[in-house]
Prior knowledge:
- The chain is α+β, with helices and mostly antiparallel strands.
- Helix 1 runs antiparallel to helix 4 and helix 2 packs across helix 4.
- It contains 5 helices and 16 strands.
- It is globular.
- The strands form 4 sheets. A 6-stranded antiparallel sheet has the order 7-6-16-15-12-13, with no helix packed on it.
- Strand 6 and strand 7 form a beta hairpin.
Amino acid sequence: MAIFREIERRLENLVEGFFTHRFSSALQPVELAHKLASETDRKRQVSVSQTYAPNVFMIHLSPEDFDELDAFQQALAHELTAYVKAHAEQKGYRFTGSVHISVAPEAELRRGESVIHSHIEEIDLSMPSGGTQIISKRELKEAINVSPKGRLVETDSGVAYDVGASTTIGRRGDNTIVLAHQGISRYHARIEADQDDFFLVDLDSTNGTSLNGEEIGRVKLVSGDTLTLGPIEMRFDLLEQ
Length: 241
């Protein structure tokens, strides 16, 4: 579509104008735009009548890339936000509020690498939309019902992941939560929501899944539980609604 080509052209102009002279990383803004679009598809939530897209994105970069982008983040975020909105419009997704994109350093990332996390955030219906499509109270209730109600937090790194109605965990990139470690199976485990309860299911992983030190097949989760997937330990938290 023409809108994508135009935004990508502006992003490429940023490369020529800013990156070429001051940015020595292999990181490319167009690549970030494509990853944001993929994240939007991956984290979409389907209700009875609508499909909702995440509207809050956090882009993690290496500390070196983050420092060099400091004076450039506002312009980059503006163009990336436009790309996400255009992608959502093309797919027919709805937002529950304005789209926000932030950038933060991640010590474990190398130059040129990036990781994106996103979630659906509720809105104050009295606030102006700022050009973003705002939904009705009925539609907002639907969106809240499919928005994340749980969270996993890695014990070592503190990295947090939203847990929704069905959350797959594994090494492959099409999982809801991607853990890029050789000790993690391609499709390692799944967290399923049933009413207000969550259940952890091992997907015949090679190195197994444990809950509070005991290997499991399928088990109910309680807030504060410790999950061990192969070599990675995580804490499960229920979110207040």
